[in-house]
Amino acid sequence: MKTIAYSVLTGVMALSAVCAKQDRPNILFIMTDDQAAWTTGYSGNKQAMTPALDSFREEAASLPNTFVNSPVCSPSRATLMTSRYPSEVKIMEYSHNPLSPEFETWPRLLQKNGYHTGLIGKWHLGGGESHPTKLGYDYFMGLLGGGCSPVNPPLEVDGKKIKVKGFMLDILTEDAMKFIENRPKDKPFMLSLHYRAPHGAYLPVRDEIWDKVKDKAYALPDFPKLKPNLEKMMRGYLASVSHYDWNFGRLMKKLDELGLRENTVVIVTSDHGYNIGHHGATHKGNGDWGSELPRSYHHKNLDKLPGKKMPNMWDTSLSPPHLIRWPETVKPNSTIRQEINFIDFFPTLCAMAGTQIPQGTVVRGKSFLPLLDGSQGDEEWNNPLLIQHDTHLTYVLRGYRTKKWKIVTSYSHNYGFLYDLEKDPGETKNLYENPEYKQVRERLTKEMESKMKAVGDPLFLPGEYPFTKKRKKK
């Protein structure tokens, strides 16, 4: 209850200040799929071609220490919607379970508070009673499942599944522009635009984009003996990001044409990060091993795992891009370095929208609006990250991240990770088995497990673990 009270109180205080300055803003929440923080030009990646995002960054605040609470699609999206942990909503892997309507969502609260709401794009949290229109959205067009072709995709349109001709990125953008243009003029709008890109398959993309990259050589991360196919993977992945960037630019131009820039909050993020050779891995938290070296490079017991899976919680898997533009509230071209969790979006968006969270609603996150408007300083902010993921419902991982330390422990297999983030921000030296750091590991494990117990993680509840039988008894 302490978390709930804090979130609601800070949200009410922040929204009072906002509402005194201006009418409730429109909210455009843009979320890509599988896009890592390292994929943009403004992040320092010289191989990325993202001119629209780079320009937007100069008008927005960047929040580079934003981390998801699970490094895979469905669990991360569920935490975003509910401000609850994956184990609470019983979604521990992609396409695991639908999101139950028993959980409150921030779109539903905004809808009840007079917002015209829409979701265009990827949902990945179920249909039927878990359909977006049952959980807070007036309008839905897109993909209920997890993946499809980036061209001529099968989408739900007006309640029916049909094949729509064209690039999915272009189709979703054009529908978003129509939604905004045709919105009711007597109420604010909130649009969730959930692109499927740059999730694989990355290609095809528009010819004018592909022509710029098809013959280009791409450098890979500095990790030994990466497999040669990763350069092709990098080329396709960054081409997909560039195609998204082209559409992002079109959408921002439409906002300006409609005179909506000044009173529209634009949030840009992704559902988690991604690896193409980073740490020797590929894909996300449930990814594969992409090096000719053995996986024991990271921990002696990793080679005992079957196949080439590389379950992980590195920052590259957890960190998406995160930009927020809100004229006259958020300082342009600023950087907010405090740690943000994905569970924090729920109370923050409610605060932005002047929407009170009903008493008794369980909210695990806390509003970071005071960081955006400058009313709270760095010294007052403490926001450790709890991470949950059961890779393929087989590898049970939990992680805990503070400003200085990160610990990741396998509760199904005998391995773990410990990093000193101040001395080793790239997470290159695993200290988990180092006897000099035994007390640090034990202290962080105690803190992590205390948090796990507080949110009812079933690893610490009586009976068999509900998500997989491959559980190592403590």
TrEMBL record:
InterPro entries membership: Alkaline_phosphatase_core_sf, Sulfatase, Sulfatase_CS, Sulfatase_N
UniProt keyword tRNA-binding present: no
Occurrences of domain Sulfatase N-terminal (ranges): 25-354
Organism domain of life: Bacteria
Xref: PROSITE patterns: SULFATASE_2
Keyword terms, alphabetized: Calcium, Hydrolase, Metal-binding, Transferase
GO molecular function terms noted in the UniProt entry: arylsulfatase activity; metal ion binding; transferase activity
Pfam families registered for this protein in UniProt: Sulfatase
The family this protein is said to belong to: Belongs to the sulfatase family.
Protein's name in the database: Sulfatase-like hydrolase/transferase
Origin species: Oceaniferula marina
Source species taxonomy: Bacteria, Pseudomonadati, Verrucomicrobiota, Verrucomicrobiia, Verrucomicrobiales
